[in-house]
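Technical note accompanying the year-one report. For the benefit of new consortium partners, we illustrate the data format agreed upon in the data management plan: each record pairs a sequence with a structure-token string. No post-processing was applied to the example shown here.
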Amino acid sequence: MVKTVLKCAILLAVVFSFSNCASIVTRSTYPLTINSTPNNASVTITNSRGVEVYSGVTPTVVRLRAGEGFFTRAEYQVRFSKPGYDDRIIPVTFSLDGWYWGNILLGGIIGMLIVDPATGAMWRIDVDAINATLNRSTSSVTPELRVIDINEVPASWKSQLVRLD
């Protein structure tokens, strides 16, 4: 009986010392829902090194890795573009996951210093959706010359008119 209890205690100690808390409870990739007004805007996502990790149109859902390297959180830039609208860039960042500290009680030193930092499970996404509103571009308006009848000119403009002889 004592040997069985001792074997179970040793087994539990080994399991807890080689497990990791954050990578069990959370994940290392997260879904991000991306919407825009107007729809069908081009979307490009680049990581902190400027490498394109996604290209498509809205609406869409992408999966982003939480870690970018050992003990390094990921950071992304989401660029929206559509003809006739100004481009818009929205950052996506990750923060330290509270479950990472669970390694102190449950995961052990290996989970805290090796597994969770290597897999990115120590980080969590700050937002789960982006809803971007694109503004109409004023720079895309091409100058034009129009001739209009004096009766069509608004009254507020008439005081600014200059007579050409």
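Partners are asked to follow this layout when depositing records. Residues 2-141 form one domain.
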